[in-house]
Design a protein that fits this description.
Length: 529
């Protein structure tokens, strides 16, 4: 592949997983202090603004990396590197323009959007986060280009830069503004400014990274712009539609929850408090998803390339590996969070929120934990369908899941005795519906045969062991050495048992170990296999 280093799916996933871990660690240092600085009501303003931004972000970029990576990987598989670079240039111009439009809409419609969301105080945050749409749109195309060439390093580096910028500028500005005595609306705006700053750093990296790499080779007949744009649209629009369904649902969900709570007599202030408590739990719920998302990013070009070359055995192995690794991440994570929900919320947020808020967030986190494996299945199966050219399948299934979520919220959140807890139950129902529909649709591909033992039974065994160990250790130690220290020790105990179980149940095959660690390292460390 010219001067690019060809990376296997598993190795590419490991690179992105490493970046994902770094990003989530950085994100924890961002979201956790931010939750303490902002408080529940400030977190509500932040989340309302972020959900609106996320919708326009999805409309501008959701299908871009997947579409570009698939087109580039197929072009490279056919030895048409000039076409691959032409695809990049056309996609970059197109979607950078779309991102600019999204930023302008977000900026000038901020006041009206904030009112629709049920909190006029969020308008300043919406306006501050608007530039991020343009910068992320520009970097999304570059990420897709390098992913399509099976080079995951640029994506990994840009993600870390983006998260680091968000941390430094977001926390710094929020802290400085709060010290000046400004209202929570100003402090929230300072926090979301970090999102725009991080997106700018990511885009700036790709400006540097693509330097001296965009001259097209001569002597190769290039595809027409119309042909490239037509294929980009055919790939990106269905993917974008599917992703936009969930993002739009999140926006509707936020507005619906806020307005239903206020309507049920809680008042705007209490509604914002409850929604802020929900977002503390949602932050922890989203932590495992980053690793699963990295698998999906590597999965699309890997399966698309194998499918284009009619290597159906490789496509099946890649899909099974992705599903297996995703569930080995999601199931034990869900079990650990469920076992230690109160202790984890208290450990991370206890310094800045009340005991009541800790209890509410912990209960919400326990309920959300059920959705973590379901979200993992949704993420990976969406990627499989997209890689095999059936982009409409995720659109239909996610639309059905969104409908389930909205209806569940109307029924559950609308009840005074259930209130905010209905939002977590509706999330579980939503992802369960999508997961079932996606799995059923996999029957269209006879060469994809999912291993029940590897994908479901082995992760379940590891999850049970993690839950039993973490809960037991915490129960034994909490009365002796204090709740927070016992929570930390329980987390490490759960991780140790998880690592032990991974190798005991054979969750990682010898072939996958070789792909990740290399032949020499395998013979040195895994010669007992």
């Amino acid at each position: 592949m010219n001067n690019e280093k060809k990376q296997s799916f598993v190795k590419g996933a490991v690179i992105l997983a490493g970046a994902g871990i770094a990003v989530k660690i950085i994100g924890a240092f961002y979201k956790i202090p931010l939750g303490i600085i902002l408080g529940p009501c400030g977190m509500a303003n932040f989340s309302l603004a972020y959900n609106i931004y996320a919708l326009l972000f999805v409309l501008s970029t959701a299908g871009v990396p997947a579409a570009v990576s698939k087109m580039v990987s197929q072009a490279e598989a056919k030895g048409r590197s000039a076409d691959a670079r032409r695809i990049y240039r056309i996609a970059f111009f197109t979607f950078a323009c779309a991102g600019a439009v999204g930023s302008l809409l977000l900026f000038f419609c901020a006041d009206r959007l904030a009112l629709l969301m049920g909190s006029a105080d969020a308008a300043m945050s919406v306006r501050t986060i608007a530039p991020a749409v343009f910068f992320v749109s520009a970097s999304a195309v570059s990420r897709g280009y390098f992913q399509g060439k099976a080079n995951m390093y640029p994506t990994a580096i840009s993600e870390v830069l983006e998260a680091s910028g968000k941390l430094v500028f977001g926390i710094g500005l929020a802290w400085i503004i709060k010290r000046t005595g400004k209202t929570e609306a100003f402090v929230s705006a300072g926090a979301v400014a970090g999102v725009s700053a991080g997106a700018f750093l990511s885009a700036a990296y790709f400006v540097f990274r693509r330097d001296k790499r965009q001259k097209l080779p001569r002597g190769e007949r290039l595809r027409s712009k119309r042909s490239i744009l037509r294929e980009l649209a055919s790939l990106a629009i269905p993917i974008t539609a599917g992703a936009a369904v969930i993002s739009l649902t999140n926006v509707i969900d936020s507005a619906l929850v806020m307005n239903l709570l206020a309507k049920n007599g809680f008042g705007v202030g209490r509604a914002k408090w409850l929604y802020g408590a929900y977002n503390y739990a949602a932050t922890l719920f989203n932590l495992p998803s980053a690793l699963v998302t990295t698998l999906a990013v590597s999965l699309i070009p890997a399966i698309a390339s194998a499918y284009a070359g009619k290597n159906y055995i490789l496509a099946d192995k890649t899909a099974n590996s992705a599903m297996s690794i995703a569930m080995m991440v999601a199931v034990p994570s869900a079990c650990g969070l469920a076992a230690l929900s109160y202790g984890i919320v208290d450990l991370l947020y206890g310094a800045g929120i009340t005991a009541e808020c800790i209890a509410v967030s912990a209960r919400l986190l326990t309920q959300l934990a059920y959705a973590i494996p379901l979200l993992a299945i949704v993420t990976v199966t969406n990627a499989i369908h997209q890689a095999l050219g059936h982009q409409n399948v995720p659109v239909v299934s996610m639309a059905a899941g969104a409908a389930v979520k909205v209806i569940s919220n109307l029924i559950l959140v609308g009840r005074v005795d259930i209130n905010i807890y209905g939002a977590t139950v509706s999330t579980v129902f939503c992802y369960a519906a999508i997961a079932v529909l996606n799995i059923v649709a996999l029957k269209k591909y006879p060469f994809i045969e999912m291993s029940i033992s590897k994908i479901f039974i082995k992760p379940a065994l590891c999850g049970i062991a993690v839950f039993a160990t973490a809960s037991r250790v915490h129960s034994c130690l909490s009365s002796l050495i204090g709740g927070r220290i016992s929570t930390i020790l329980s987390v490490f105990a759960g991780i140790a048992v998880y690592i032990f179980c991974v190798f005991c149940v054979g969750a990682i095959s010898k072939e996958e170990k070789k792909l990740v660690f290399g032949e020499k390292n395998i013979s040195k460390f895994f010669n007992n296999d």
